[in-house]
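User: what does the whole thing look like in 3D?
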Amino acid sequence: MRVPILKQHSYLIASIQSALTDDDLLQLRDDLVAQIGRFRSRGAIVDVTALDVMDSFAVRTLRGVAHMIRLRGAQTVIVGIQPEVAFSMVQLGLTLEEVATALDLEEGLAYLDDQPKSNGRHGE
Amino acid sequence: MANDMQVGISTSADIVTARQRGRELASELGFSGSDLTVLATAISEVARNIIEHAKEGEVILEPTHNGSKQGILIIASDRGPGIPDVDRALQDGYSSGKGLGLGLPGAKRLMDEFKVVSEVGKGTTVTMKKWVR
Amino acid sequence: MAKQEEATFIQSAAESPTALLRELVAHLRQNRTQLREEWARRITEAGLLTAMSREEVFAEATTVYDNYVAVLETGSVEALEAYARDLSERIIPRGVETHEVLGIVLLLRDVLARSLFKKYQSDIALLNRVLDAYEPAANRIANTVGVSFVQERERVIRQQQEAIRELSTPVLQVRARLLILPIIGVIDPQRARQLTEQLLRGIRSNRAKVVVIDITGVPAVDATIANHLVQAVDASRLMGATVIVTGLSSSIAQTLVTIGVDLAKMKTVGDLQGGIEEAERLLGYKVSRVGEAPAQEETG
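Assistant: Here's the predicted 3D structure for the full assembly of 557 residues, as structure tokens:
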């Protein structure tokens, strides 16, 4: 299932709707990284509220997304990691270091708004 | 038992199927909350290990018990190239595939019992158990 | 002589255990009022069920009596079992003990046996056969009631343990988006796991952004528990919340350094008050005394 990516002002929002296969995740990565350049977005939010499992592949892929987007001059926030998912991630040893996280979409947007805008992109 | 389940693993969609079945069975067996997520994650890791190293195999899910303790037994097996050094493969940070080096050692940390039997050229079988708390 | 033997034979055919039990049931029904009163009197005499009023004892005694007779009649203990569990649920909170419950059932067994003895005492052989039919049924009843009571008690105890464990570490919201988790007492892996789960659920339901975990009341921390603490910090961050740990004793600090916990990940502040102040700063609160507020603005 392809993850829909919405453009809101200078941000992209990828809202995962259901369990994703590895291929879906790689597709999401490619789509997001391509669109961040096309729309000259300042930031991307990946909403994982609907994910009931974040295994090493999912975490590795999302970390890759964040790094690639940073290389393209924008920021990434992962939002909506559920309590049970967070708990099993840390037991597995996956802490998503160096990647910003926030409680939900609203918090993710607030986080991006707080970031300095001096990265050469257009504001709106 | 009617609760037994076998899931063939050959595509990444099968990984999702295996962990969803595992979660359903675990829920019927009385696992709850974060344990369900932990189990689903462990199943995901061993199923992916099959695809990355052997291309195909299967995951068997069944109830188990030890005295009055109820639990779930998960067996992931393949006829792939096998792992030359199992102990090393279970160390954190070791990875022969595209993994983060967390696949098998990670799954091991999530489970109560974990055993890998592997023979080079013949295949690998991961057997793991978790008990209801 | 031969004729008498034949009569005995016919009599014993009619006296199969089922037939005897049927006769027994009729006897117990006929003398219900008197036997029930006798039983209630013996309960009071023996000083059992003192937590209950005389009327309550009599009412329960009546129900138990009728259930008792029903078991003798049908051989099925299911209804009695359900009633015994229900009764236990009602009387356990009032402090009724296991020996009292067993005591009253054994008393009823005694009252009924005495009445059978009285009725059949002229024919010892028949009395023996009646008691042979009665005993197994009576034992089964005593067993059912006793086991139901104990099971119910165990369930209540388990429930209370769970409740105590939950209560032992409340997740408190002190301000919007700020949670405090004061941990008191020894932490074992199970409690550590439960604490983390409670904390993570608390973060979601309170939309917390900062959490202060105070471990002033924790006597010691070993490597396993330290790792659980680090996991709680990491998992909270995955949910977008910052954790501040306060009240690390010097010995715990030593342990953490010795086992090589990555302290860079953990924000620590000396005491709970300092932790809350730091949390408020992170959340953008400015705390000042009412009288001092304007002065601060002038200097700032």
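In plain terms: The first strand of chain A starts at residue 5 and ends at 8. Residues 89 and 95 of chain A are 7 Å apart (CA to CA).
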